[in-house]
């Protein structure tokens, strides 16, 4: 398949590009290095150094014999987006090209405006470029479970059937995000749903939980092919952050009571889910939504699991509750359906003690690169 990956330099974008190229797809990865720029601006550089996209592609081709073509440019610029789609004529577009940090989106006006303009502008441009140049293309957009919030009812896979005054209909599941970043993802979904209804686009929206991990089949071919591994408060996901804190001897920073529950998945399963969705495309005029996670944990559950992994390496890992910088329910009901991707054939990689232990071992090998100043939260929601 001809596959265009937007945000192809990112934590998920680059591993996806390698995985699909290794399967024989014709892959073009596009990125404007926004994440790198923000990491530098906020002193949030990743634990491991990351080569440029062109260098990564060269390393990958030498190690695997497979090719990822690259294009550096801004997907929020319609001229660049239109060139990408017209030139590549993709059969599938994997859309990761968004500012992905909730804390960054809450820092102030400039950060909020960048998040809003980039995320919605990129999605809008993609819709129109596809309509003009590849109308049968399947768009696979990465959403987030954070769109749903924490309602006091079960979370369905994107849709909810409602009975009101004796009549029934099906609507997008009500969503109530806790950050501006997550709000832009809701608006993405609404925008895509409008164009699906109006112009018959094919779209799969993957509502993904927090991802953890460093290892994929392709990333393990060379040390410099590893994905971004942020451990700071702005770009680091909670599992990755906790592992670095354990290695650095810093108590695991549980926000508030630690009862916040979410669905998590291994980065290897992100690659599976994207490929499964791509290989079984949505129908023309369909917005298909999958909840993309494999296990549910509270923050305290995660802390205890990483304590146990630390004991495998003779580490005495402490846990410390700190005031919650976010506005979120710290104790809540959470039960989310997630059968769609399993029905397509997802084979989950679960968060075992061995999996966490292997990740921790790699972090420990790079312990001298940890900067403790990046660990504690620097952004408050209000």
Map the helices and strands.
Elements: E1 2-6, H1 13-22, E2 26-31, H2 34-41, H3 53-64, E3 68-72, H4 78-88, E4 92-95, H5 102-105, H6 109-133, E5 138-144, E6 159-164, E7 167-172, H7 180-199, E8 202-208, E9 211-212, H8 238-248, E10 252-255, E11 261-266, H9 267-279, E12 286-292, E13 295-298, H10 299-312, E14 319-322, H11 340-344, H12 353-365
Parallel strand pairs: 1-2, 1-4, 2-3, 4-5, 5-8, 8-12, 9-11, 10-14
Antiparallel strand pairs: 6-7, 11-13
Helices and strands, in order, run as: EHEHHEHEHHEEEHEEHEEHEEHEHH
Q: What is the CATH superfamily?
A: NAD(P)-binding Rossmann-like Domain
What characterizes the major β-sheet? 7 strands, parallel
What is the CATH class designation?
Alpha Beta
- Helix fraction bin: 25-40%
Structural domain tally: 1
Poorly predicted ranges (pLDDT <50, ≥5 residues)? Answer: none
Average pLDDT taken over every residue: 97
Description:
The protein is α/β, with parallel strands linked by helices and 382 residues long. The chain has a single domain (2-374), classed as NAD(P)-binding Rossmann-like Domain (Rossmann fold), CATH 3.40.50. The chain is 38% helix and 19% strand. The protein contains 12 helices and 14 strands. The chain has helices at 13-22, 34-41, 53-64, 78-88, 102-105, 109-133, 180-199, 238-248, 267-279, 299-312, 340-344, 353-365; strands at 2-6, 26-31, 68-72, 92-95, 138-144, 159-164, 167-172, 202-208, 211-212, 252-255, 261-266, 286-292, 295-298, 319-322. The strands form 4 sheets. It has a 7-stranded parallel β-sheet, with helices on both faces. A 3-stranded mixed β-sheet has the order 9-11-13. A hairpin with a 2-residue loop joins β6 (159-164) and β7. α6 packs parallel to α7 (180-199), α8 packs across α10 (299-312) and α8 (238-248) packs across α12 (353-365). It is globular and about 55 Å long. The mean pLDDT is 97.
């Amino acid at each position: 398949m001809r596959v265009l990956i937007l945000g192809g330099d990112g934590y998920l974008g680059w591993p996806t590009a390698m995985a699909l190229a290794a399967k024989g797809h014709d892959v073009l990865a596009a990125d404007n290095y926004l994440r790198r720029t923000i990491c530098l601006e906020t002193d949030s550089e990743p634990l491991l150094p990351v080569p440029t996209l062109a260098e990564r592609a060269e390393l990958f081709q030498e190690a695997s014999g497979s090719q990822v073509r690259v294009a550096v440019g801004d997907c929020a610029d319609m001229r660049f987006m239109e060139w990408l789609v017209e030139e590549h004529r993709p059969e599938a577009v994997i859309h990761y090209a968004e500012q992905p940090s909730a804390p960054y989106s809450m820092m102030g006006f400039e950060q909020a405006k960048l998040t809003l303009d980039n995320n919605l502008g990129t999605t809008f441009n993609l819709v129109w470029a596809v309509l003009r140049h590849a109308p049968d293309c399947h768009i696979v957009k990465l959403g987030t479970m954070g769109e749903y919030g924490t309602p006091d009812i079960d979370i369905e896979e994107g849709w909810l059937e409602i009975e009101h005054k004796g009549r029934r209909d099906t609507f997008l599941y009500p969503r109530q995000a806790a950050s501006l970043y997550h709000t832009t993802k809701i608006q993405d979904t609404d925008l895509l749903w409008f164009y699906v209804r109006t112009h018959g686009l094919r779209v799969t929206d993957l509502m993904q939980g927090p991802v953890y991990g460093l290892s994929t089949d392709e990333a393990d071919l060379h040390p410099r092919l590893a994905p971004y591994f942020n451990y700071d408060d702005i770009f680091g996901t909670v599992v990755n952050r906790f592992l670095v804190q354990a290695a650095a001897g810093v108590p695991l920073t549980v926000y508030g009571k630690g009862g916040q529950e979410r669905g998590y998945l291994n980065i290897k399963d992100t690659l599976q889910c994207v490929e499964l969705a791509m290989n079984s495309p949505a129908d023309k005029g369909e917005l298909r939504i999958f909840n993309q996670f494999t296990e549910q944990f509270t923050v305290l559950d995660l802390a205890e699991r990483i304590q146990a992994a630390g004991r495998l390496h003779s580490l005495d890992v402490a846990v410390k509750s700190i005031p919650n910088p976010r506005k979120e329910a710290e104790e809540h009901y959470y039960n989310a359906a997630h059968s769609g991707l399993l029905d397509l054939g997802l084979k989950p990689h679960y968060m075992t003690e061995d999996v966490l232990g292997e990740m921790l071992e790699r972090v420990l090998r790079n312990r001298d690169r940890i900067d403790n100043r990046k660990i504690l939260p620097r952004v408050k929601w209000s």
